[in-house]
Write the structure tokens for this entry.
Amino acid sequence: MATMSTQAVATDLRGKTAVVTGGAGGIGQALGRRFGRAGMNVVLADVLAEPLKEATRTLADEGIEVAGVVTDVTDYASVEALANAALDRFGAVHVVCNNAGTGAVSEGYMWEHDLADWRWGIDVNVLGVIHGIKAFVPILLGQGEGHVVNTCSGNGGFAPIARGAMGGPATAVYPMTKAAVLCLTESLYTHLQMTGTRVRAHVLFPGGFLNTGIWESWRHRPDRYAAAQQRRAPETTLAAVVARFEAAGARVEFSPLDTIADQVMDGLAADSFWMMGPPTPADQVVAGKAASILARGAPDYLVDVLGQDAESTSDEGGTR
Ligand SMILES: NC(=O)c1ccc[n+]([C@@H]2O[C@H](COP(=O)([O-])OP(=O)(O)OC[C@H]3O[C@@H](n4cnc5c(N)ncnc54)[C@H](O)[C@@H]3O)[C@@H](O)[C@H]2O)c1
């Protein structure tokens, strides 16, 4: 839904350029489409060449000025090459979405997690964002304007969902990486402010149950992060997650990705650090965590996370 503020920024950003990592599908492609419809030039970047080509073609068919650049965010040279490609094609970059991510699922208790799972999750979800900041922020500063939008998650950004809906341990990798994304973005916000620039940092919390590739990231696991340990159970699929929720009596309804893209447009217009949907009961975790810290108490809010969010967790993956 386009709001007044969305319209305002659409005018502002018309003719400007957005770069979106993880743009071959899911939230990234929805962001690219939303930016393109607002009259922006779009650079979609992804490690998956074929889906990227398809996503780029789809947006181009809508009349969007779009380029696809195969990029591996775990490799700094590749992200630098992305920045250069964007500048070569469109002359400037105004909005950078560090959105590429991997499900970072791991089996068992965290001391049992495969080190390859940790490395893959950290390299994509954390180092990938650091690479984006290092390659693009100097360009934005040189222009004197621009926005960095880092994709976080309530799972980690608020608190980890440490126990899955079925009562078993959920991955510790994913929430750890997303907690890092929030922390990085807070530092970025402050450092930018210290320079007096108009460049801004924002953190995106996609909400709802989303039908994206993140649940099945394992399908595209690079060889260099090949699992070192034998898996005990088959990899999770989105269909299996949905089936588990339904078996537990939960109604599964996917939220439209356009809503997330609108959140970003509205957040840019309003210059919001926190790019979030309307308040939900899950927000209470934040209050519980703050209370626990201030009282030097036990982290009981983690139990609350499970209670409130059980519908959207899986044993392995937790909420994305
Ligand atoms: N889907 C959700 O419920 C949800 C919730 C909160 C946050 N997020 C976050 O949103 C972001 C987008 O995820 P999504 O849900 O659209 O999933 P997705 O799997 O559809 O999209 C992620 C994209 O990142 C790409 N990618 C993975 N490794 C990469 C690498 N090394 N270099 C470049 N690209 C790479 C993938 O190929 C994929 O196209 C992620 O950061 C994810 O953690 C998702």
